[in-house]
Fold:
Amino acid sequence: MQSDARMDEIRDGLSEVECDVLVLGGGTAGPMAALRAKKKNPKATVILLEKANVKRSGAISMGMDGLNNAVIPGYATPEQYTKEITIANDGIVDQAAVYKYAENCYDIIQELDRFGIRFQKDENGEYDVKKVHHLGTYVLPMPNGETVKKALYRQLRRERILISNRYMATRLLTGPTGRVAGVIAFNTRTAEFIVVKAKAVIMCMGAAGRLGLPVSGYLYGTYENPTNSGEGYAMAYHAGAALANLECFQINPLIKDYNGPSCAYVAGPFGGYTANSRDERFIECDYWSGQMMQEFYQELVSGKGPVYLKLNHLQPETAEHIEDILHKVERPSRGRFHENRGTRYAQSMIEMHISEIGFCSGHSASGVFVDDFARTTVPGLYAAGDMASVPHNYMLGAFTNGAIAGEDAMGFADGHDFESFDAGDVAAEQTRIMAPTTREDGLPPNQIEYKVRRFVNDYLQPPKVTAKYEIAQRRFAEIRQDAEERMMVRDAHELMRAAEVWSILDCADMAAYASLYRTESRWGLYHMRADYPERDEDNWRCHVLLSKKDGEMHCEKRDVAPYIVPISDEEMGAYYRQRITATA
Amino acid sequence: MPLANTPTSVPVLVDAEKCIADKGCTVCVDVCPLDVLRISEDTGKAYMKYDECWYCMPCEADCPTNAVTVTIPYLLR
Amino acid sequence: MMFEPVGDDEVELLIERLADGDPEVRRVALIELANTAQPEAVAPIAKAVEDPDAGVRLQAAISLGEFDGFEAAEALGIALVDADARVAQAASDSIAELKAPEAAAALLPLVEHVSGFVRASALRGLKALRHPEALAIGVKAMKDPEPGVRAQAVGVVGYLKAEESLPALIAACRDADAEVRRTAAGALAFSKSPHAADALIGVLADEGWAVRECAAETLGKSRFDQARGPLAGLLDDDVWQVRVKAIRSLGQLKAKEAVDRIAQSLHHEVSNLRKEAAAALGEIADPAALPHLEALVNDPDPDVRKNVRWALSRIGAATG
Structure:
């Protein structure tokens, strides 16, 4: 280990390694992809590259308190789940990938169980699945889910996956035919570059969670792990991959100021719920969706606001048991937050709010476009987890689709040789990344980042207004120019933050561009366009794919693949009508 | 260099008495997702160098000697 | 360093550091040894449970939780009787992580230990291993003087789902300790025997609300028809959470005769109860519930309205 002074010192360096399958991101999907690729071909070389440290990286850094979408025989069927997701996503779903997830996820649960990840079981040792949603039964609690990352790490070391921590990938390398050739990355503690040549690359780089600014104004107080700053989205875009439905933002309910998840899935089975200031339940919507968030938002700004998590009607022992889970597993600092405020769940309701915007398919549908084998539109390039377009995927989706990606990517690598790439691309990328190190004077990355994200809140947070979006695009262009000409850093750590600024800017631009393209409202609050307030089934019952064409941002429509689980108009309509309001 | 130094109250506290970073331990520095902790050249103990905390707590939970305490950043408190 | 160390000599280098005179250096070496996740690391870590320094022993007990098998379990058994309470607790927690069947052989002798903490910890570890020999041992331990041991013993027996353990589980439903009674009631879920049903019905009168709640839920899950009357008797329980479970079970049992009593809960101030009552009335689908449900179509709670609407459509379909 280097001493402190030398640790963040910027050094020159460029090395090259090669592997069969390269996995970018060691959070949830990444470890599973790497393990499955290695299992498929134990002789092949698999590298797992991680910006932080695989031990505690990604959205589930500390743990996870439950599976929200487990399709377990006897409780739910793949058909039922696929239908539910299609309806919750207003019909814009390629069902093959959702169905495949639903068919495979139970095997993955059992595999994770063998890894030592603990799911709730009843007194006979059977999975204790809970019904939280109105129709299906999908929730498998994990009151001891704090060991998830430890168990994954142990598995990776046991299988001798090559783990490379503290390397931040910034651009994919592609060959003359557009096929993926590898990646360029730099060490976040020394600024030394590395080129990893790979026959296939799996991106598991998480949500774009550092896009909007949290209400606290603290740059890192985000809903998502702030290391997930959208590199996956930006890199896929620059490599020419298509990104799907980015206008379907992620916005989540959360504990106000603390900005962590409210965990309705934990409290629900015990009888806790989201209430308005009159202690009343108000959410009409069945499944977690943009529609649900719209109802939440409307209640917040109505005379019945704010919104609370209500547990104080439960027996004190029950409320304390919920506190114990919520303060121990997923975001344990939550207990400290409540302690400072003097809030006890058994006594008072807990104020909630909505999150800043982001891209994340884990909770919504914005992601790099993939098929049911996790293949992107770039040959040899895969995506899984929160950054891939399979909607409402959550943690179990990341594991399951990570496994699917790992297996298919190794198959691809086995059938291909290395793709060539232009050495000039590497040099150009080094110059681009290192530019802030060449200045004696200028703007630090944190200030540039704050400004971008403040404008994201001011102009992009729904309801979406065309003229405000156009102002945002002009502001982003100005800030981009500032960053190009004046951003400066003093050490390798700050260089990482500078590189993240580029991802955040790219994501802000993509969020604006995709939102303006879809001239209708859909997915409730996620794409609520004040000047196009109606859903337009005739023109917009389709995906919107965003990609880079001739160096410019471009959007096009893509048909939704024919459903494999048919849904009658009546069922779809029943969903829209089902939001029964009291007439009294 | 025309950059000001703005003070900030750091959320991660390290008890130097308990910290064994000087014996080769790097657990908290390793596990931090934001990579904000370092080991001081002067004291040989861990400290928070960059105020970029997600108050996620692996540094505290994984510390073998219970030397680390994560508090909620003041702006959120 | 480009990659996390994966070389075969890594474990050996760390083992050398375990001989260092400084206990904190030994402790750091143990952490890194556990990180390797290699089977060769188990033996040196296991040896460290007898280190003179308590901090080192604590780390060894924690680190062994990253491994599995007989050797790790045996060393954890030593740590379990450590004079330092933190070491013993860490060993107990690590024992609960064991999954390999062969680990049971190291735990079985400990269930006779003089310390209740050791007995409870051994049983806690045996539970998930589902070792056949653990059945007789678990049944015996259900008579242990210490309630913490008895609760773990019920856990072991419940996981084995053996009809022959019914008398013991039924007896445990009358244990002096509420947590033992609750666990035993939940463990009876596997059995379809009328004796299990009778025992669970008896538990509906338990003084602990969580125990009653568990019995009410289990009776519905197991579809014990004979519980319909006793469950209906629970509908004026002081704790609404108990009533929720009784109502849900009555719905599962299609208890037509309980419709009027269930309908009384449609007016309870806690909407969870109204919601559950509407759902149960829909499950039962008896037209007698119609007037009660129709009065609730404009309930302020959307979930109640949804369930009322659903129940009305079910009754409509049933009556054609």
In short: The two ends of chain A are 69 Å apart (CA to CA). Residues 578-584 of chain A have pLDDT under 50 and may be disordered. The interface with chain B takes residues 1, 3-5, 7-8, 52-53, 55-58, 61-62, 146, 165-166, 188-189, 216-222, 225-227, 257-259, 331-333, 336-337, 340, 440-441, 444, 493, 496-497 of chain A (CB under 8 Å).
